[in-house]
Structure formats: C-alpha cells, structure tokens
Amino acid sequence: VLMMVGSILIQGCQYIVEEKLLGSYYLSPMKVVGWEGISGCILWACLLPAFQYIPCSSDICSNGWIEDTRGAFEMMGESAPLIIFIIANIFLVGGMNGLGMAVTKYASAANRVTLQQSKTVIVWIFFLIYQGGGHEDFKYLQLIGFLIVLVGVVLYNEIVEVPILGFNQNTKSAIEKRRLAEGSTEENFLKTDLPNDATDYAQSSPKAYDTQRKYNRLKNHLEH
C-alpha cells in the first residue's frame, strides 16, 4: 500500500512539473517525452546491472534478485511474440505519453488525469469481454469504485457544476463572470496597467496559450 501511495505521489509531482515546464517554456510535447525516455534509459542502464547482483527474498523480486535482467533477455530470446509485444508496447506507450503531454500543454494536468480515467475504464471493459488470459469477472464493487473516481474527477475539474450549497460560487466560470462584471479581467490588466514592453512580451505568446499562462509568464518576467 505504501509503495502504491508513493508511486501516486511521484506521478502527481511529475504532472505538476511537466505542466510548469510546458507552461513556462516553448517545448514540444513529443520532445519532452523523448528526453524523458532517454533519461530513463540512462538511469536504468546504470541501475539494472547493480540490481542483478543484489539478493532479495521478497515475493516481488525476480529469481532471488531485485531485478533479473539476464532472465528477462533469455525469455525474450525464446519468445518471438514477446519481442513483438515489447516493441509494440514501446510505441504505444510513447504515443500515449506524447498525447498526454500535449493535453498537459494545451489544457492542464488535471484534464490529462481526467482522460486517463477513461483509459482505465476501457481496459477494464476489454478484459470483461476478453475470454483469454487476464479475463476479469464482473464485480459490482469495481463498478462502484470506477463511478466514485469518475464523479470525483468530473466535479474536481468543474466539468459538471453542483448548484447547491454554494458549490458553484467559486468555480472558474463563476470567478470569471465576477471579473467581467467588475471590469477587471486579466486581458484588460495586461493592456492598460502594464508597460508597453511588457504588453508586447505577452502578445508574443502562441495563440494556444491562454490568458492565465500569459499573465504568469509576464509576472515572472517583470519580477526577474
């Protein structure tokens, strides 16, 4: 359980850092994914040889070692379908991460997490239908769990607003409506209250970047 919670925290931190980098610099999503892959390959190329010789008696270990790299290569050498599966997995995961990075850049990390929930549901439905290895038996608790996660993500990302108990008073759309009513939108602020060079700096941003990201970059530029 601790390992699972730790992995979720690390993944969350990764998404936050990615959104920060993509929002602050003009980076290609696929290039970011590529560099992440290269750094990961370098890291594991250094760690796997060491893990091969560290004894481990836990059930999660491989043949008595933390990682049995030699055994993995032996299995690949004996199974052509396994090699095909690994190659396909590399391209599919790379494409998935690239699309996810694009969502992070042009929308937000929260939207990326929302879309990932649909991926989990699709995989679950597939293995409910599939009768081969890995087949899942339908369980009501799993369905309830998916629904709870989905509803939580939808509400958190304000895809659906709940108009009771004031829950819809501090959503992004409600705040924006109040700003428009007060005549103090960020766009007007950039046009009227900042120096000309600062305004030009904001206008140089790509159209894909929304006003909030323009404002954040502009603020950092003026402070430094």
From TrEMBL:
Transmembrane segments: 82-103, 115-132, 138-156
Listed GO CC annotations: membrane
The keyword Membrane is annotated on this UniProt entry: yes
UniProt KW RNA-binding keyword: no
Keywords, sorted A to Z: Membrane, Transmembrane, Transmembrane helix
Protein name: Uncharacterized protein
Biological source species: Euplotes harpa
